[in-house]
Amino acid sequence: MKLRFLFVAISALLLAASASDSKLTERQRALHALNRLGFGARPGDIDRILKSGVDIWIDQQLHPEAIPDRAVEARLQQFETLRMSDAELIQKYYRPIVEARRNKDEQDRETMQMLRRSAQEVMTDLVGQRIIRAAQSDRQLNEVMVDFWMNHFNVFAGKGIDRFLLTSYERDTIRPHVWGRFEDLLMATAKSPAMLFYLDNARSVAAPENRLRGSGGVPAGLRRHRVTPPQLRRNPAATPQLSMLGGINENYARELMELHTLGVDGGYTQKDVTELARVLTGWSIARPEQGGGFVFRRGMHDVGAKTVLGARFPPGGGIEEGEKMIHILAHHPATAHHIAYKLAQRLVADEPPKALVDRVAKRFLDTDGDLRQTVKAVIDSPEFWDPHSYRAKVKSPFEYAISAVRAIDGQITDAMPIARELQKIGEPLYGAQPPTGYSDKAEAWVNTGALLNRLNFAVALAANKMPGVRSNVPSATNVDALAQSLTGGALTDETRKTIREQAGDQTESSTIVGLILGSPEFQKQ
Amino acid sequence: MINRRVFLKSSGLALVAGGLLPNVFVRMAQAGTPKGKRVLVAIFQRGAVDGLNVIVPYGEAQYYAARPTIAVPRPGSGEAAALDLDGFFGLHPAMASLIPYFKDRSAAFVHAVGSPDTTRSHFDAQDFMESGTPGVKSTEDGFLSRAVAAKKEANASPLRAVALSPALPRILSGNAGAVAMTNVGQFGIRAGEASGQIASSFESMYAEAVAGALGGTAKESFEAARILKNADPLKLQPENGATYPNNALGNSLKQIAQLIKSDVGLEVAFADVGGWDTHAGEGGAQGQLANNLRNFADAISAFAKDLGSRMGDVVLVTMSEFGRTVRENGNRGTDHGHANVMLVLGGGVKGGKVYSQWPGLAPERLFENRDLAVTTDFRDVFGELVTKQLSVASLKTVFPGYDTNPKKWRGILAA
């Protein structure tokens, strides 16, 4: 008995030791890099990467500007709205709807339907480019980071005019900054019409006694969504006084600290939220109904004295107060920790090791929030390459769908069917309602209906029944060969055996491919 | 504040019944049919329905003053007029199909109910109502999910919580293992003739240790699919002459009835229905809102009729993120407001009544000088329903940070 116990204990120790001592093979490293720093491997990708070496590929991915991406660029030329400004989009697609409403054409169903359908082009183009880029761009890590930051600074397309503002938000606010300094990215989002509208800062206005004398208050176009004074938020039963109507909206100030920078445990108080909201009054949109850009409205700004996180602002300040706070928040240690945690969660593990987070946070602070260096700190870490990290994360619906398309070397002729599948599996693009965006943890995605939808997606895609995707499924019916080509060898012996047993001799390759893409191994990265 | 406790005078049944007899569904259920699981069905009217035109406070002159073109006329003023409920409130005439249930006291309304959070953003308000934590955005799960999770069941069915929607709605996301589906007949692997073979391949694959946490979910999924396949709920055609309207809600409720009747272990069902954001051309007794309300009421009354005595086990409740402005706007519509109305229908409901601590429509009684004020927190309605219908022992985890004292309940359900 004792001896056997000893034997078990020793072999357990040996196993544990071998797991942490062992290293990923070069093939595994290549697949891991393609999965975590991209949207999965296409047939032949692993061999292509191994030719020059995994580290060289990663280095290239960290400098996407040097990767020519002509095929995708050419492909995106057809999406006209991607090149339009907010003003042009709103003029072309939104104003006609407003006009029709004003002229009571609303009763004319056909006209309204036609206008609404036309307006959908904007979202169709935007969703289309995200899917096509993720699936086909050679700048894979760039697309991963765009996905990460669009989610970190989430804006929901379903809120009012935001569906016309997201095109410029992604193109001009997020994409140019994902490899720059965090402060620049943060400032760009703070001044973007999409965010100002989404989190209501555009209509946050100082209490009358704190406004400059003779100033106007909330401009037309922002009035329809009424503001709620903080006094009423806290005590809904309070009878509103006229003087309280119109007022501070804390929505953005709260999320700026809770979600965008410090994190929910970042050490700020409700007082800091209210004071930061006062600092940010006046950060608004010029002519929102016409697609105007950022404007600082002095008349809406709170000119009283304020203190946020210990920073004091004497009476009479203006836009520089908010800019100073953005600077302070961008360089705060809690922000470094929060960003490091989220990056490590996305790229390494659902519950990232503390040592890793601390190291990445230090790199963030040491490099003035250089996002290239910060991401590099994650990739260079031993935790990233630890065998425990290998195929340990469940793919998000977006990662899953795109990686399946890549595995079959699918050519996308129409991205909308994939977009609709993403909705079914639970992650519609630009469709996260709460400012938290989508979760990067498995438990958010693994639920009963969604898993069946993933499996049905896999089966339909493999059978070439997914309209809009032309698959290049190999016609071979050898399970091992297909598994190797589609997953880079990720399937376990058990799974391959199950497929072989179930498939028999008569099975078409598409059935085998469907089973491989639906396998538990392929749900992971 | 006036507590409206006036029963419907025109209903002979209500007068005879006094307060002693249970409502019609309970009596039907007691008459014989074996009792199934108790079910709570929640319907979300997304877009903010105009509750003041659903349950019309026709006894208030202010109502008519504020709505010159879209008010629903007082009862007795022709066919296109409110249907009297209690001498003060009237039901929109397009919802006439619900009147029999109100008369036999199986349907009740709650007025001036809503969320204390004052946001007028659809998405924030829906989010707060579904998370069950108004004002707190960091809540990860929905309150119905927490209610189901709080009710420990030894052999809980994988189909105990079902949403008739493409994605799991916020209200049911969380640890309860809720299932989202749009078509009960299509839940499972769909691969034509090969479906069975492919499904069994997936099942073997996911049974292996390699699946990890996915294995448990997969097991539940395949089990749910198998239960549905065996129960074959689609074969259950509507009974008692019920005809569901051909619209999204009718389709959802028809399927929920099929799930209930096929005894697959359903405890909570959820469906949503849009089209209520009537900023322009809302209409009064007729028009845009009237058409939507007709579809809405007809779907619900078909559901009750279809289930018949089985409705004794079921409570259906409706909700909407906020109400609409008391005054009509320049486009003969209404803008985003505050308090709203809920319908509660089913077994155990102490119906035939509009539950309301009516705040009034006089300008000084309005919330922020424009909206119906909230006098009943929606959590007090759901707190009572979840406790009594689902037998959830404690509301602490269902509505964290909220005083869930039963003294605040309106007493809509028999204990």
Report on this structure.
The complex is a heterodimer of chains A (525) and B (415). Chain A is built from 25 helices and 6 strands. The longest helix of chain A has 28 residues, at 109-136. With 525 residues, chain A is mainly alpha-helical. In chain A, 54% of the residues lie in helices and 3% in strands. Chain A has helices spanning 2-21, 26-36, 45-52, 54-61, 70-76, 86-102, 109-136, 140-152, 162-174, 182-190, 193-198, 230-234, 251-260, 270-279, 319-330, 333-347, 354-366, 371-379, 382-385, 397-407, 416-425, 448-462, 479-487, 493-503, 509-518; strands at 283-285, 294-296, 306-308, 311-313, 411-412, 469-470. Chain A has a two-stranded antiparallel ribbon. Chain B is α/β, with parallel strands linked by helices. In chain B, helix 8 (195-207) packs antiparallel against helix 9 (213-231) and helix 10 packs parallel to helix 11. The chains are: A mainly alpha (525), B alpha/beta (415).
Provide tags for this entry.
heterodimer, A: 525 residues, mainly alpha, two-stranded antiparallel ribbon, two-stranded antiparallel sheet, 25 helices, 6 strands, globular, B: 415 residues, alpha/beta, 9-stranded mixed sheet, 3-stranded antiparallel sheet, 12 helices, 14 strands, disordered N terminus
How big is the Rg of chain B?
21 Å
| Envelope shape of chain B | globular
- Low-pLDDT runs of 5+ residues of chain B are 1-20
> What coarse outline of chain A follows from CA principal-axis ratios?
globular
- Give the helix/strand class of chain B: alpha/beta
Q: SSE order of chain B in H/E notation?
A: EHHEHEHEEHEHHEEHHHEHEEEEEH
Largest interface, counted with CB-CB under 8 A?
A-B, 63 and 63 residues
The helix fraction of chain B, in percent, is 25-40%
Low-confidence stretches of chain A: 12-20, 223-246
Largest sheet of chain B: 9 strands, mixed
Arithmetic mean of pLDDT of chain A? 87
- Give the termini separation of chain B: 27 Å
